[in-house]
Amino acid sequence: MKASSKHNPITEFDAPKPFRWNQYLVGGSIHSWDGEFEKVYSPMGKVGANGATERVYLGESPTLDEQAGLDALAAAKEAYNNGRGYWPTAGAADRIAAMEKFVALMKEKREEVSTLLMWEIAKNKSSAYKEFDRTVDYINDTIEEYKELQRRGSHVASKDGVISQIRRGPLGVVLCLGPYNYPLNETFCLLIPSLIMGNTIVFKPAKYGVLLLTPLIDAFKEAFPPGAVNIVFGRGRTLAGPIMKTGEVDVLALIGNSKSSNALVAQHPKPNRLRQVLGLEAKNPAIVFDDANIDQAVKECVNGALSYNGQRCTALKLLFVHKSVSEEFRTKFTAAVDALVLDHPETDCPLTPLPERNKVEQMEAYVDDAVAKGATVINKNAGRVSDTAFFPAVLFPVTNEMDIFHEEQFGPVVPIVEYEDLEEVMTCIAQSDYGQQCSLFSGNEATIAYAVDNMVNQVCRVNINASCQRGPDYLPFTGRKDSAVATLSVHDALRSFSIRTLVATGADQKDLVGNIISGGQSTWMTTDYLL
C-alpha cells in the first residue's frame, strides 16, 4: 500500500511533564508500590536532535502483583461484609452525599484529566474535554435517577392481606474493567451506578489510558468509605484472573471483547452466581438504499465509521450500498475521507494516531487480506503515516470471503459492500455474531418501515438516516449475541447492578410496621421522600 500524503503528527505542542505514579487505593488507604512498573508512551512522536522521530515519554504506572489484587478483593469483601457493611446498608441520602462529594472533587481535575486523555490515547482536544464533561453529567444524572428509584421504593403497599415494601438492593463485590477508548466515560458508566447501589468495587484501568485516571484517586479516597472503591494497576492476566478464581466476585462489569469476558467467567468456580454486565464488540452495518439522500448518507457514514479513528464499538464497520447508487456514494465518500486531516490531538483534527501497539500493522493486515481476495483501496491518501498513525483506507468491493467482512476492525479501515438483493444483506446481518446497532439510509417511508421491521430483532438500536451512537445516556445501550450482556443507560444501569428485594408481612402486623417506619429505626424500611 502506498504511504499517505498526510504528514506525520509531530508538532511543537508540549507534552505534560512525565511522572512516575506509584500509588494504588485499597481499603481506604493509599499504598505505595516499589515493584515493577510499566512505561507509558504517547502515540504522538517528536523530532529528536538527530532528526529522527522519538516516542514521547509520559511516565510510568505500577504493575502490581497478584497479592495486591487479592488484597483489593479482600478489602472490597470486608467492606461489603455479606451485605452488612456500612456502604451496602447506608441510607440513600448518605450514598448521594458521598457521590456528590466525589463529583465536586472530580470537577477540579478537568484540565489535568482531559490533557492526559489527549496525550495518552490521542483523543482530539474537543472530544477529550467532552468526555470529561459528559462523565460529570452522567454522574449527576445517575444521582437524580437514583433519587427517583428511592422515591418509588418509599411506597408501602397493602393488598390481599399482605403489607409489602419493595426496593432494589446491591449484589456484592464488583470487578470493574474499563476500556481504553473511553477510559473515563465508559468506565464510569459501570463504576458509578454499581457504587451508588451499594456494591463495593475492585477497579482495574485498561492497558491504555492509565495515567489519566490517577488524578482522581484522592477523590475516591476522600468521598467514599474504606473498601467501597479499590483501585489497582497492572496486567489483567495477573490481577483479574486470580481475583475471579476465588469465586468471591459477584458481578463482572467489563467493557471490552467477548474473548476476554468468556475467559474470565470460565475462571469463576460458581458462574451461576456471577452477574455479568458487559459491553462487547460489534460489527455495526449501514445500509444505503437506492432512494437514499447520498450526501446525507456520506456525511453520516464518514462520521460513523471514522470518529475517533473508528475506535468505538458503536462505529459503522461495514457499509452495504445499493448497486444503483454505489458509484456516486463511493466517489463522494472517498473524497470526504481524503479531505480529513490526521494530526496531533491538540489541533482538534478529526483523525489522530492510534494508541494500541501494533494497531497500524493490524490495519495493514486487513487491507492486505482484502486486496489479495479482490478488493481495491479506492481512496488516495490511505496507508501508514508512522508506526502509530494510519490514514483511513476505503476498501471496495468487499465480499464475505474477506476477514474484514466478519471481524471487528476497531480502526480506520472502511469496507464497502455492493448489493442488489436486500434479502442477502438481511441474511448477512442475521448470521453475524454481533447485534448492537445498524444505520438505515433512505427517504422512502415504505423502505424504512420494511427495513426497521426486519432489523429490530437483529440489533438493539436502529438509526434512521443517522450514524450509530451510544447517547443520549437516558436511552438503553445494549446488544444481542456477542455484543453485550445487560443494559446500560442512566435508568437501566442502576437495575443491572442491583436486585429487587422486598419485606412482607400480614395485615395484622400493621402497627409493628408503622411504628418501625415512623420511628426511623430502619434505613431500609422508610417512607422518606428524597428531594
Keywords:
531 residues; alpha/beta; Aldehyde Dehydrogenase, Chain A, domain 1; Aldehyde Dehydrogenase, Chain A, domain 2; 2 domains; seven-stranded mixed sheet; six-stranded mixed sheet; globular; disordered N terminus
How is this structure best described in words?
It is a single chain. Residues 1-5 have low confidence and may be disordered. With 531 residues, the protein is α/β, with parallel strands linked by helices. The protein starts with 18 loop residues before the first strand and ends in a 13-residue tail after the last helix.
Question: Brief overview, please?
Answer:
This protein has 531 residues and is of the alpha/beta class. The chain has 17 helices and 25 strands.
Q: Report the top-level CATH class of the largest domain.
A: Alpha Beta
The CATH topology of the largest domain is Aldehyde Dehydrogenase, Chain A, domain 1
Shape category: globular
CATH level 4 superfamily of the largest domain: Aldehyde Dehydrogenase, Chain A, domain 1
Sketch the major β-sheet: 7 strands, mixed
Strand content: 15-25%
- Structural class by sheet pairing and helices: alpha/beta
